[in-house]
Amino acid sequence: MGKHIAIAGVTGAVGQEFLRIIEERKFPFDSLKMLASSRSAGKKIDFMGKTYTVEELTANSFKGIDIALFSAGGGRSKEFAPAAVKAGAVVVDNSSAFRMDPDVPLVVPEINADAIATHKGIIANPNCSTIIANVPVYPLHKANPVKRMIISTYQAASGAGQSAMLEMIQQAKEVLDGKPVTCKTLKYQLAFNLYCHDSKMGPNGYNEEEMKMVKETHKIFSCPDIAITCTCVRVPVMRTHCESINLEFTNPMTPDQTREILENAPGVGIIDDREHNRFPMPIDASGKDDCYVGRIRQDESLPGNRGINLWVAGDQIRKGAALNAIQIAEKLL
């Protein structure tokens, strides 16, 4: 396979992170095509000593491309990913467009890299909150099957994209200046506030984000029997999602066993200093590849030592999106 790469959605937060990670990890490429909406076409981007001109993403953008990294939103993925596949590219898609398609592998490389080989042109990147939960939970599940997961998320502005991050800064200034708060990208005031994740609400009272975590985890673990329930919340943090995760195991599981497994798990870091009450924070994980775990403790409400509580922080733009996609692309090469 050659190494002709295209990035669709290069001007967004994840698109920019793709570029940083390609440079950091010395991802091999012979040519790089930068694609975005017509709004951004013509923009110049300096990257690794060369100036690139952003081109408009169209159905004809993929001639000669080997791998297309998509982070341009679900609508554009549905519209243009099939054209990329038809042109001979393998698409690694960061949107929700294809995740639950039975013909499309949904991949976290630390967990199910072998699924990459089954692709028919498209490989899906899971939801950011799903990835951040799954990286530490899967090695525990492998050692001692998880029967039930209860997850509460604390999701940063970055999950709603670059414009949301900028709007939160603007909102904070407006609140401090006593001015009316702007809500264009964000549905509600996020500065000095938090709210239920504002993805579409389903008839069961769960929003789409919560149901994504349930269905995607079942698919990635190839284990539809795990009972999973989620509450997803947007918090006034710039980037890096945090998650409170409660696990019920089939067999007894102690905090020491949990810690030992996680210390050897790929993509996991541990910050668990009870003495100084120091555990993972968004600022610890921002810009980092690992998902950080702390607050490792027994759930004393469950009999027989079968419950464990964890607190996890993971960079949503990085491992939750761009890094995961590039790890998939590295496996393709």
Task: Summarize the SSE layout with pairings.
Blueprint: E1 4-8, H1 13-24, E2 31-36, E3 44-47, E4 50-53, E5 55-56, E6 67-70, H2 74-86, E7 90-93, H3 109-112, E8 122-124, H4 128-143, E9 146-155, H5 162-176, E10 195-196, H6 208-220, E11 227-234, E12 241-249, H7 255-263, E13 268-270, H8 282-285, E14 291-298, E15 307-314, H9 318-332
Parallel strand pairs: 1-2, 1-6, 2-5, 6-7, 7-8, 9-11, 13-14
Antiparallel strand pairs: 3-4, 9-12, 10-11, 12-15, 14-15
Helix pairs in contact: 1-9, 4-9
Explain how this protein is built.
The chain has helices at 13-24, 74-86, 109-112, 128-143, 162-176, 208-220, 255-263, 282-285, 318-332; strands spanning 4-8, 31-36, 44-47, 50-53, 55-56, 67-70, 90-93, 122-124, 146-155, 195-196, 227-234, 241-249, 268-270, 291-298, 307-314. The chain has 333 residues and is α/β, with parallel strands linked by helices. The chain has two domains: 4-125 and 321-332, Rossmann fold, CATH 3.40.50; 130-315, Dihydrodipicolinate Reductase, domain 2. Strands 10-11-9-12-15-14-13 form a seven-stranded mixed β-sheet. Strands 5-2-1-6-7-8 form a six-stranded parallel β-sheet, with helices on both faces. It starts with a strand and ends with a helix. The mean pLDDT is 97.
